[in-house]
Write a structure and sequence with these properties.
By secondary structure, the chain is mainly alpha-helical. The protein has 15 helices and 2 strands. Keywords: Cell membrane, Membrane, Transmembrane, Transmembrane helix.
């Protein structure tokens, strides 16, 4: 897996992702504690609202950012957005009112909505071999899991000597370091084959996404993953501080369980995906995570869980969560031409975060009004619905090359190449606006 680090451009991009997420992880812990400090037992509702604002920014800004990104130098765009995030992070330690949290979170996450899809779409342009890209996805998953494992552990250590608001300074440092690493390499910026209007560029990625069967299945799995992760990220602080009566550092330990399970999955997946297709691996991961959350609901109904039990359950949820979403980059890359890739990654970013937009506030409301057992049970039911929809929407077997015709094209059109029957892997584009049915 580590051989791909010989590629200097990818190595710098991965390092940029690592340091940015290290800072983001500190902010995740600090934001939960800030919410508890400002709102006490209503922290779940405050944090849920803050995360909802984050999702609103992601859903509304990402498609627009993708539309304009194709006309911008990708490296300059990424560096600028990193610096915006760093400035916002520097403001967070001075927050004294809940509304200030909401405003700063919107600005911060608007910058992230432009940064993340463009960054993700750059990786397959740098690593064009699918096996190398699969390994890169796992390494990226490991980088994301710093937010759930290494960062909470670091936060727990720092909280022994500093107040929680000091953690936001580490967030700003992480974004600044990310900008320096991105500016140190040259990045590819694929250009469109033909000029398009703003509306076409804004909606193109979502149109390609929703017309591709495997991506419709991915959207359903994203719903499942969002339901389960919402329970973990929104409600862990209240379970640990309120229900269990433990200290701030215990919150970091419980979240580290989720991150540890996710990291373990990331190590296993490259070898597993060489032997099995994406669909069964992703469905199995979603099934494991859903079954674990159902178990947590049952155990919570019987008696209060210990920190060790909660951490172990969160680790299993994290393993299933990572197994569900890590291969998604492979599906997105196969489903778009290089010039449409950023738009399709932005579509996944937008649509998956639309799921969180619904489920984050719902999770906080369920926890606040009905407690942990009801919240876990309700979110398990929602996750199961997404799992069943994914199994239906994503065909179990689909030939790689699909025979189809183009009655609207002349027989000498270059796309037809004079070959009959006309068959090739289908990617939604101007010549293939719909996904044909396999014969």
């Amino acid at each position: 897996m580590l051989k791909i680090l010989r590629n200097r451009t990818y190595r710098h991009l991965l390092a940029a992702q690592e340091v940015a997420l290290l800072g983001t992880g500190l902010a995740t812990v600090a934001l939960g504690l800030l919410a508890y400090d400002l709102a006490g037992e209503s922290a779940a509702m405050v944090l849920g609202t803050a995360l909802t604002i984050k999702m609103v920014a992601y859903v509304s800004i990402a498609p627009v950012a993708a539309a304009f990104a194709e006309r911008l130098d990708r490296r300059r765009m990424l560096v600028t957005l990193d610096m915006v995030r760093a400035v916002v992070a520097l403001c967070l330690p001075f927050v004294t009112e809940i509304w200030q949290v909401y405003v700063l979170i919107f600005v911060l996450q608007s910058a992230s909505a432009g940064f993340t899809p463009a960054f993700q779409a750059t990786i397959p342009d740098v690593l064009t071999d699918e096996q190398e890209y699969t390994k890169a996805l796992s390494l990226s998953r490991l980088a994301y899991d710093l937010e759930n494992l290494v960062s909470p552990m670091l936060a727990a250590a720092l909280l022994l000597v500093v107040s929680f608001d000091s953690l936001f300074w580490g967030t700003a440092l992480g974004f600044a370091a990310s900008a320096l690493l991105v500016v140190s390499v040259a990045l590819p910026s694929p250009t469109p084959r033909q000029p398009r209007g703003v509306f076409d560029r804004t909606t193109r990625g979502i149109r390609i996404y929703l017309r591709t069967p495997r991506l419709r299945g991915l959207l359903a799995l994203s719903w499942t993953a969002a339901a389960l992760s919402a329970m973990v990220l929104v409600n862990t602080v209240v379970i640990v501080r309120g229900d269990l009566g433990l200290q701030d550092s215990a919150v970091a330990i419980a979240l580290a369980g989720f991150g540890g399970g996710s990291m373990l999955a990331a190590f296993v997946l490259p070898a597993l995906l060489e032997r099995l297709p994406d669909r069964p691996v992703m469905l199995a991961g979603a099934t494991l995570a859903t079954a674990t959350m159902a178990t947590a609901a049952l155990l919570s109904a019987v008696a209060p869980m210990s920190l060790a039990m909660l951490t172990a359950l969160w680790a299993l949820v994290g393993f299933g969560y990572s197994s569900t979403l890590t291969p998604s980059g492979r599906l997105l890359t196969r489903s778009a031409h290089p010039e449409d890739r950023a738009a399709v990654f932005a579509a996944q970013f937008t649509l998956s975060h639309a799921c969180w937009l619904v489920l984050y506030p719902l999770s906080g409301w369920l926890m606040t009004q009905h407690g942990a057992t009801v919240a876990m049970a309700a979110l398990t039911v929602l996750a199961l619905g997404g799992l069943m929809l994914a199994a239906w929407a994503w065909p179990a077997f689909q030939p790689r090359s699909i025979a189809h015709d183009h009655p609207d094209l002349p027989a000498d059109h270059p796309h037809l190449s004079g070959v009959e029957p006309h068959a090739h892997p289908i990617i939604i584009d101007d010549l293939h606006p719909r996904y044909p049915h396999a014969p």
